[in-house]
Write a structure and sequence with these properties.
By secondary structure, the chain is an alpha+beta fold. It has 2 domains: 14-126, no CATH class; 131-247, no CATH class. The protein contains 5 helices and 10 strands; from the N terminus they run H-E-E-E-H-E-H-E-E-E-H-E-E-H-E. The chain has a 4-stranded antiparallel sheet, covered by helices on one side. It has a 3-stranded mixed sheet with strand order 8-5-10. Strands 6-7-9 form a 3-stranded antiparallel sheet. Helix 2 (68-76) packs across helix 3 (107-121). The chain is globular.
Amino acid sequence: MTKTLALAAMLILSAMHGHCQDLAKPLAFEVASITPCPPGTPAPPTEHAGIAEFTSPGGRFRASATTVKFLLEWAYGIQPSQHSDGPAWLGTDRYDIVAKAEGNASDPQIKRMVQTLLAERFQLKLHRESKELSAYVISVGKTAPKLFPPKDDETHALRVAPQMGPNQKPVSYRVIATRYTLTQLTDIFARQMDSLVVNQTGLNGEFDFTLDLTPDEERPNPVDPTILMTAMREQLGLTMKSQKIPVDFLVIDSAEKVVAGN
């Protein structure tokens, strides 16, 4: 009886040890291919806006002509101002990356796999720090937010439609979003404004909304902070204020180029 109990205990401990090892092992793709692009390869048209559509059903991942910098920001869910610069090639050298998970995988799981890919293939080493940075903080205003639930047949999309004047030049820009989160919108604004933009509305779902941005002679940039603040308040019922906030900051310690397909 004693020997039986001892054997059972050993089996349980062995199973627990294996389970702990599985939990400690970082998520990784089953297969992944990285091919450097020729010098001068242009960025995808959506990259400047911070729009990334890398994943597809079945645990598939595909990134065309992307940079390590952009992948880092996507995988860790941070904006450009939330990490150090690192080597210059991180933001200039472009790669085609095709990968597949073992079975289905959610977007958060795919992002963790990309983190592992960057660490293993590019030898990307990071550490975290807490910093106080200037940011534009978006919060709920005094009136009810003018955000609408998406229709069942709608897909995730963002479109910018120039509104033409009599001389056939744009006089304003209409941002039309369907099934968009406010965090996704702030990420786009952050890249256009070259500033940290943070969603503190507490509104976490997907929404439909329209935002008209009208530049003028004094502020020709449609995403000028003053123009955005006014448009967000008057059209969406959201406030946007500049203030300093504590944020997690990623410091890039080192990285190595991938010089041939692997």
